[in-house]
Amino acid sequence: MAYLGDGSDAPSGEIELEDDEIADVLRALVQSDDRVQCLDLPHRRLWIKRQGVKVLPRFVSFQGLVAALLRVPHLRPSPQLAPDAMQAREIARMHIFAAAGFPVPPIVFQSKTAMVMADVGPTLAERLNTLRTSDPVGHDALLVQAADGLGRVHAAGLSHGRPHVRDFFLSDDEVGFMDFEEDPASVMPLEMAQARDVFLYFLIVASRAIRPDETCPAALGAWSRHATDATQRELRSLTTLASRILPLIRLIGRVHMGSDLRRFIMATEFLMKAPLDRVASPNTAKAGQDG
C-alpha cells in the first residue's frame, strides 16, 4: 500500500529523504514554477506537481463544449477550483484510492499548492510506446489489463475522472492510478461518472489498439465483468447520445480532423456496435444477457 503524507510521520520502511535530498527538493520548489517537474537525485527520482493557473487540455475543453451545447451531461467537466482546493481534492482522492487497495504514487512532501511524489516507473503510455514495435500482442494485452483495472475501480464504488494510459502505471503487475484532478462524481451520479470513464478510456483503446477488432471487445469484456447494471445502462445512454451527434462530429472533421475528433469517432463507432445490453458481467441479469 502506498503511503500518503507529508513525510513527517512516514512509517518504517517507507520513503525517507536524506538531509541533502530535502535541501534539493526545497531548492527546486523555490527556483521553478513548472506545473510538473522531474527531479533526479543521486539515489531516486521524484516528481513535483504544482497546482496553479492551468490551461485545460484540448479534449477537456472539447468535453465541456459538447456537454454544454449538445446537452450531454456525462461529459460535464469537474469544477475548476482555487489551487489550494484543487490540491486538497486531489490528495483526498489519492487517499481514497489507496484505502481501497489501489496503487497510487507515494507523497513524500506536500504544501498547500505543491506535492512531491516518488517515481512509480514508466506510465502505461510509455510501456505501450515500447511494446508497439517490440511486442504487439503484449501491447494490446496491456490495454485490456488497464480496462480490467478500471473495472475494479468501478466495482469499489469509485471513478477516476480522466482515465488515460499516461495516468496509469504498473505496480507488481497491478494497474495503479495517478492524476486525480477530475472528480466527475461531484457533479453527476456515480454510475454516470463511471460510464464517462469507460467512454473516455475507449477513446484510447479504439485509437491505439493494433488489432482493434479483437482488442476493443476484449477490453470491454474485461471492464464489464466488474460493472453494475446501473453503470452499463448509463454507458448505453451515453453511447446513444454520442451516436446522435456523430454526424455533426464527422462534418466538423471534414474541415479539420484533429486527433480528438478522430478518437471520438472511433470510440463511438465501436461502442455503437458493441452488445452493451449483453456484456458479460456477474452483476447483469441473465435476461439482460440474452436480450
UniProtKB/TrEMBL annotation:
Keywords: Plasmid. SUPFAM superfamilies: Protein kinase-like (PK-like). InterPro entries: Kinase-like_dom_sf. This is Serine/threonine protein phosphatase. The lineage of its organism: Bacteria, Pseudomonadati, Pseudomonadota, Alphaproteobacteria, Hyphomicrobiales.
